[in-house]
Each structure stands twice: as structure tokens, then as C-alpha cells.
Amino acid sequence: MPQEGVYDIRMSFCIPVLTYHNVSPGGSVTPEIFEQHLKAMARLGFQSIGGKDLKGFLNGDRRKKKRVLAITFDDGFLDNWTIACPLLMKYGFRAIFFVITGKIEPGGNGCRPWIKAGKTYSESLVGRYMSWDELKEMERLGLGEVHSHTHSHRFFFKDLNGCIGSKDLQWLAEDIKRSKEEIHKHFGSREVFLCWPGGEYESRALHCGENSDFHTFFTTIDGTNQLGSGTREIKRLHVTSKGRVPFNLRVWLYSGSLSYRAFELMKRIFG
After folding, report:
1. Quick check: is 131 in a domain?
2. For every one of its 271 residues, what pLDDT tens digit does the chain have, with 9 covering 90 and above?
3. Residue 9 lies in a domain
4. Residue 5 lies in a domain
5. What is the CATH number of the domain that holds 107?
6. Which of 21, 25, 207, 257 is a plausible cystine mate for 13, CB 3.0–4.6 Å?
7. Among 47, 51, 83, which residue's Cα sits nearest to residue 64?
8. Is 8 a member of any domain?
9. Whole-model pTM?
């Protein structure tokens, strides 16, 4: 199983952080496409790293030198467990799972079975969320780690149309604090990363998060992350089943500072 802290990342000038949501026949990425992505990552020589190594790189740690990336899942949908996890295990990858703690199912009856390739995905499972049992088993297997996507997943800034007062910020502080408490209750005390719902945040939100003892923040800003770029605004590469630029090319471009800069220049010139 993938192990934390054993990857060689000194020569990885940038680390792409991939963003997934659903992996299901009707989701943003189908199981077949997700498996193609994992095959492409393996073929290109990428290894996935967890939060500890990612944070070390973003804080300037140059200790190692393999081609690496981070895989993230937002929301905590059940298909992340039943479909994505067996594929992660098959290809030797791990992921960071940002879960909406208010929607995680209580569990208590063990883990629901993995769905084998080619099997029909029951409509009754669509829109469901993982349970705490499944999240614990996923961590036990070394397939990933659990972090916060807030407790309620409210699109805070969009809902309030920018009119945010002190009571609103107090609500936000209580919501993210509760999400961290839920994770600590099930996994013990440890650092919890925060991923903003819809990627929406601004300086007051960051200040609110830092006052709630969060130090690592993930966004939906499209881009890659250079050595020492910090943990207050981690950029990510949004992944779907579609896209004008092939997946393997995008990942390769986002993994090098020079290739990424050239890619960004071409986008500005040609749209």
C-alpha cells in the first residue's frame, strides 16, 4: 500500500493537485475515465502523495525527487468508496478526501461492498454519502485521509451576495469548527485541512479559518503549486470526463514550472 513520507520530490518543480467529485456512470467522471486517468498517471511515472508530504513541499521542503501529484475528492460521495477506492488500490494511489461532515452517514453496520468493474451501479446509491465506518476503513487501508469540506457545505459568499457581517462570520467559524470536531471525534486529534465549498473564500474567511486553527486551505483556483508557494491558497486542477486538452498532457504540463508557464501563456494568446 502507498506509504506516507517515502516519496522522492526534490525534482518536482510543481505539484499538480487534482480535483474529483463523483466517480459514477452519471457523475462528473465515469469509472472508465477515472481508471484511464490512473493508468495515465502510472504510465507517466507519477506517484500520489498525502497531506504531510504535500504540505512539506509547499512549505519549501526539497528533500526528494520523484514525479508526484496529489489526488483530492470533494464532498464525500459514496461512490468514492464503492468505485474510486478499489481503483486507487489497484493502481497503488492514495487520495485526500474532503468530506461534508454534516452529510456523512452514521454507519454502524460496517462498510458497503466495493463495486467491481462492469457491474451496474444501483440508482438507490446515487447522491448518497460515505459513512464514518467507510472513511475509517479507507484510512486503515492506506487509500487516503479525511479532511474538512465544512460541516454544511453552504456557498457562503454566493448566498450572501458579498454582504457579510460579523454574525455571518461567526456562523462560518462555528461551521468549520464543528467539521473539525467531528473529524477529531472519529479519528483523534490531528491537523485538519480545509477545502472551501465551491472554492469561495476571501481574506476574512482565511482569517476566520486561521482563528479556528486551520492552517492549510484548498481552493478551486485553476493552477499548479510551486515549491514554497505556501498553504493558504492551494490551487487545483479540476478533472471531468471532458476537456479540450488531454488529461495526460494537462498533468504533465502542470507538473513543471516552465511547461506550466508556457501553457498559461498559450492559453492567454489563443484562448
Report:
1. yes
2. 444 444 444 444 789 999 999 998 888 899 999 999 999 999 999 999 999 999 999 998 875 557 899 999 999 999 999 999 999 999 999 999 999 999 999 988 899 999 876 666 776 677 899 999 999 999 999 999 999 999 998 876 665 555 566 788 888 899 999 999 999 999 999 999 999 988 777 888 899 899 999 999 999 999 899 889 999 999 999 998 876 678 888 888 888 755 555 555 555 555 5
3. no
4. no
5. 3.20.20.370
6. 257
7. 47
8. no
9. 0.88
